[in-house]
Write a structure and sequence with these properties.
- It holds the Pfam family Ank_5.
- Keywords: ANK repeat, Repeat.
- By secondary structure, the chain is mainly α.
- It has a domain of 89 residues: Ankyrin repeat-containing domain (Serine Threonine Protein Phosphatase 5, Tetratricopeptide repeat, Alpha Horseshoe), CATH 1.25.40.
- It has 22 helices and no strands.
- The longest helix has 17 residues.
């Protein structure tokens, strides 16, 4: 019934596609029995007309007509457990369509989980939904309960938002409605929303929102690999402002924290080519201890910097803060000094 509008070049359909008129015509001219039968007919994958329509950015009047033909389909899922509201939030349909589905399906459709354990709010947070739509899903899904809901990977809507680069406004809304618990929640591989924000180089404003509500505990949180948000920030190239913020709120402890490989944030910064300014922030806060810290192979940050071809200014910083004799003379488990590594690099 609704397959035709999906068959454009993008595979997603458009609200103004003239082929929706064919759907309207059928729904207008068919008998109630014919409409109900057509509206409930499903493919092998469990797709039925309302669900297919919601994949195609449908006009709200078509959705309303399909719901009139078979009201119970608003709560029906396909073989992956996705309801029309799931699909709508995943595909970015209009707010009017979302409102209609919620009006007809109530709290039940907002709380429904697909086979990955995602609620419609999870999917909306991962797909650039508007602040108004996110607020609507939170309100209809139980408020704080909706914000705390975890999928099968342990991730909350706030995890999703931070992992998929949601706007500052969306993150602020989820933080305000979900509270400290949402900021502290550990999901996939033990990661918090702050871990994801740092991994994806979120803005200083977003990181500040998470840190202010999550407190020092959020900065100190370690994932299953022992990495803190500062480790992530140094590994994935977060801005100097973000790294400064994490250091200010987390203190010397986060600069000294080691992951399961024995790496401190300074090790990560040196390995992944962080700027001189970032390295300076880490050594000024971490001091000599940060410069002399050894990973599981016995290598110091200076070993790593020399091996990875760091700039002269970065090397000089590590030597100055680590003490020339101690830093340059340090040997790893193979007996190599930073000079050995520098010579290996050429």
């Amino acid at each position: 019934l609704c397959a035709m509008p999906r068959e454009d070049n993008s595979g997603t359909g458009r609200e103004d596609d003239p082929r929706w008129d064919d759907v309207r015509r059928f729904l207008r001219e068919a008998t109630d029995e014919e409409k109900k039968k057509a509206a409930e007919e499903a493919t092998r994958q469990g797709y039925f007309p309302l669900l297919v329509a919601c994949c195609c950015n449908p006009p709200v009047d078509v959705v309303e007509a399909l719901l009139d033909a078979s009201p119970e389909t608003v709560r029906r899922g396909n073989d992956d457990g996705m309801t029309p509201l799931h699909v709508t939030c995943n595909e970015g349909a209009s707010e009017d369509v979302v409102r209609l589905l919620i009006e007809k399906g109530g709290k039940e459709v907002c709380e429904a989980k697909d086979d990955n354990g995602d609620t419609p709010l999870h999917l909306a947070c991962a797909n650039e939904a508007s602040e108004e739509l996110i607020g609507l899903l939170i309100d209809c899904g139980g408020g704080k309960k909706a914000c705390k809901a975890k999928n099968d990977y342990g991730n909350t809507p706030l995890h999703k938002a931070c992992n998929y680069g949601a706007s500052e406004e969306i993150v602020r809304l989820l933080v305000e409605r979900g509270g400290k618990e949402a900021c502290e929640a550990k999901g996939y591989r033990g990661r918090t929303p702050l871990h994801y924000a740092c991994k994806h180089r979120a803005s200083e404003e977003i990181v500040r929102l998470l840190v202010e509500r999550g407190g020092k505990e959020a900065c100190e949180a370690k994932d299953d690999l022992g990495m803190t948000p500062l480790h992530f920030a140094c590994k994935y190239g977060a801005s100097e402002a973000v790294i400064r913020l994490l250091i200010e709120r987390g203190g010397k402890e986060v600069c000294e924290a080691k992951d399961i490989c024995g790496d401190t944030p300074l090790h990560k910064a040196c390995y992944y080519g962080a700027s001189e300014e970032v390295v300076r922030l880490l050594v000024e806060k971490g001091g000599k201890e940060a410069c002399s810290a050894k990973d599981k192979d016995g290598s110091t940050p200076l070993h790593v910097a020399c091996l990875e071809g760091a700039s002269e200014n970065v090397v000089r910083l590590l030597v100055d803060f680590g003490g020339e004799k101690e830093a340059c003379g340090a040997k790893n488990d193979d007996g190599d000094t930073p000079l050995h590594f520098a010579c290996m690099k050429g």
